[in-house]
Write a structure and sequence with these properties.
SH3 domain-containing protein; SH3-like_dom_sf; mainly beta; 5 strands; five-stranded antiparallel β-sheet
Length: 82
Amino acid sequence: MQSAAGWVPRCVLTLAHFRVYSPYDPSEHAEVQAMALKPGDLVTVQNFGNGWSYGSRVGPGGAHEAHGWFPQTCIFQPLPLQ
């Protein structure tokens, strides 16, 4: 089933975690709210655009530790729901 582009009710969305595969050092992008990442980190993504993602790093117990922009190339695909 396909649908036209448009808004989706929030109640049908699910939270996805992405595993970080490549590191990112935000020191070269001080003009934006960037977030440091290292391989193995888990992140959630709230926004994709122009090769960048805005999201949160997930810490122990599912707490969001930090928020910011990072290159989409740091993540691969969502992890399967458990």
